[in-house]
Amino acid sequence: MSLITFELNRPMDFIGLGRLCIDLNANEIHRPMEETRMFTKYVGGSPANITIAIARLGLKAGFIGRVSDDQHGRFITHYLEKEGIDTASVITDKSGSVTGLAFTEIKSPTDCSILMYRDNVADLKLEPGDVREDYIRQAKAIMISGTALAKSPSREAVFKAVDLARKHNVVVFFDIDYRPWTWTSRDETGIYCSLVAEKSDVILGGREEFDLLEAPFGPLQQDDRLTAERWFAHHAKIVLVKHGGDGSVAFTKDGQSFTGTTFPANVVKTFGAGDSFAGAFIYGLMNGWDIARSQQFGAASASIVVSSHSCSDAMPTAEQIQAVIDKHSSN
Ligand SMILES: Nc1ncnc2c1ncn2[C@@H]1O[C@H](COP(=O)(O)OP(=O)(O)O)[C@@H](O)[C@H]1O
Ligand SMILES: O=C(O)C[C@@H](O)[C@H](O)C(=O)COP(=O)(O)O
């Protein structure tokens, strides 16, 4: 029997919740930001990227979020619509908020960083009233981004969404997605993200992100299995710890673990790996694949995106991902 069960008779497969932003990725790669003058604009924000990945793979996706009432907000909404993502719960914020920006610096294939501008951002203006029970109950799964917990009223909107999802058997994915720019302290991050992790079915994060959740409550486990067991004592069925170029380890509540390897890539930049991995991994689970195959699909997708300039635009189709797997299994 499968560890997590998706309600198959629902019209929508997946809802993303949280940040709808813009990435400005340096065109002049292998240069520090101080010397970079040209950037290309893409839709960004980790939960947006994951939802776009899932839509490209052919699932029916929607999004719950707020965008700014300006050209950038309209750019994002139009892009989601072009990708076939339902925007009925993408609300235009009228409070004078702005779109969050992520400037990416690509100094080398291994030395990349992000500079975020996140004052008065529209995504954190999401209100509990924007989260509709009838919207959530028609979906099989929802993905919560931890960054949506950084401020009220978005924080309360997340708790409402998670409770409604649990009430209607909508599988809750939680991506810790730590971005320091909008939080006031690491303790605040750890405590609020832990509260949602406790209620989630599947938790995804990097080693340092899981450390952040453990830090306010005691000594760090510093061991992926012990970390996973902490969440299995709550509601989680799958805990996946991402390890960058070293792959990932997935743990399941029934005591199994799966080590995911990586695929070779002509790395342009490292960001986008986690989002493409998550989109393809979730797609695998939603197709009823086992964890190892889903992990492999995620890793192959990530190898395509780290070899590209963008995150959202570069999200591959299922055929493109399968071609990578086939190429390497025939070698
Ligand atoms: N340099 C790389 N080459 C190929 N695959 C990679 C590389 N970096 C990451 N990946 C793949 O992407 C997955 C997620 O990457 P990771 O960097 O841990 O996530 P995040 O971007 O959220 O920090 C990894 O488990 C691996 O499969
Ligand atoms: O999440 C953001 O606001 C920025 C993203 O769009 C960005 O491209 C990125 O950092 C991707 O995150 P990752 O997949 O966790 O590397």
From TrEMBL:
Pathway: Polyol metabolism; myo-inositol degradation into acetyl-CoA; acetyl-CoA from myo-inositol: step 5/7. It is an enzyme of class 2 (transferase). PROSITE patterns: PFKB_KINASES_2 (PS00584). InterPro entries: Carboh/pur_kinase_PfkB_CS, DKG_kinase_firmi, Myo_inos_IolC, PfkB_Carbo_kinase, PfkB_dom. Its EC number is 2.7.1.92. It catalyses: 5-dehydro-2-deoxy-D-gluconate + ATP = 6-phospho-5-dehydro-2-deoxy-D-gluconate + ADP + H(+). Residues 18-317 form the Carbohydrate kinase PfkB domain. Pfam families: PfkB. PANTHER family: 5-DEHYDRO-2-DEOXYGLUCONOKINASE (PTHR43085:SF49), HEXOKINASE FAMILY MEMBER (PTHR43085). This is 5-dehydro-2-deoxygluconokinase. The gene is iolC.
